Amino acid sequence: MLDSLKTYHDRRYLSIFLFGITSGFPWIMISSVLSAWLKDEGLSRSAIGLFGAIFAVYSFNFLWSPLIDRVKPRFLGQRRGWIFIMQGGIALCCALMTQLSANSHLFYLALVGLLIAIFSSTQDIAIDGYRIDVIEENDNDGLSAASSVATAGWWTGYGGLGAIPFFIADNSSWYWPDIYGLLALFMLVLMVTTVFAKEPDIDRDLLRSQATGNPAHSNTGATPSKIALWFKQTLVAPFSEFFSRNGVKLALSFLLFIFLFKIGEAFLGRMSIVFYKEIGFSNSDIGTYSKLLNWWVTIIFSLIGGLVNIRYGIYKGLMTAGIAMAASNLMFSLIATTGPDVTLLAAAVIIDGFTAAWSTVAMVAFISLLCNRAFSATQYALMASLSVAGRTLVASSSGFVVDFLDGNWSQFFVITALMVIPSLLFLHNIRHKITHLEKSKTSE
């Protein structure tokens, strides 16, 4: 295990960690903070759940992901340039939020939230591509370490920075629109860190030519045949290469598992803030336990999860995380029957933080393992979008499920625990294929 720990002794992981913060932070703006704002304004569970539909953008970002792999901004490079531009868009949207009211501008609130989701999901394409590009090819240990550091960063943005708005809401005269101004300032600071990150040294044209069999550098000019080739290499090649390399049956098996794995966790996550408020926890309780405590737990288990993946492989990491995921949902069911007990909340948050960290690290490493570096951002976006689709499109109905159960939160969380089982059965069936893929990547 000590040998595995040495993998983290690399300055590249600091940039990966900071980009993880950048990736997780926007979810606060359109998830926890927005849900708390809408709940305080008296919106129903169903309406708040429907607001989660804006996360569907993360399910479709693979549609424009080829452009992030192919179009290079005029400054900061292929990866950092896109990240910087999208960060600016998010900061601007937060500034717009300060001028809106949930009662008078509900449509515009949803519209700006949608824009944040578009900018955020686009920056995620570039961030995921950066993480894969900056690690040497066939370095499976490096991929697992990068995945754990990225997960720790994501939860620092979502949990660490995400706790601040709830403390401010309880202990100052600021209301939720005012808090969005502070969120905009945080994003501006993150833009500065992007400038100082090192751009990966990748000859993407050469890698693309090796993957497609087309010349790396063609003569200048814009003939119809060259335009058609550009569109083919940009929009078609990343997806066709993935299916041809793995075979259609195996490729579809991978994609189906990715879709199923986190549906139960997403149902819980979408309604968690509503649940905390209805059961009787204060904003400070939410900030302390759901954000700050969860943040530290997730960072610790993200790093441990990376070490486990390095030592025992991705399959065991995924299976352990899936079993723990179901158990953590049952802990919330217990809280629903006992009421606002902060001791139980702390225990549930610790277990939930472990499962969220462990499962994310294993899944990120698994998806990264499946990517061709010539199309790293595009292929990662394709698979990650399927994971998000299960977590957003389906989970948007979570409020209706709670209403159908007449507000029986205990039954709701039991149902979310049962949702994990199909993915674990499917994971067991493809275990040999995952292990074979890890060994073949290492031996290349």
From TrEMBL:
Q: Which domain of life is it from?
A: Bacteria
Record key words, sorted: Membrane, Transmembrane, Transmembrane helix, Transport
Q: Where in the cell is it found?
A: Membrane
- Molecular function per GO: transmembrane transporter activity
Pfam (any one): MFS_1
The residue ranges crossing the membrane are 12-38, 50-69, 81-100, 106-127, 148-168, 174-197, 250-273, 293-310, 317-336, 342-368, 380-402, 408-427
**How is the protein disposed in the membrane?**
Multi-pass membrane protein
Q: Does the keyword Ribosomal protein apply?
A: no
Q: Does the keyword Membrane apply?
A: yes
Stated name of the protein? Muropeptide transport protein
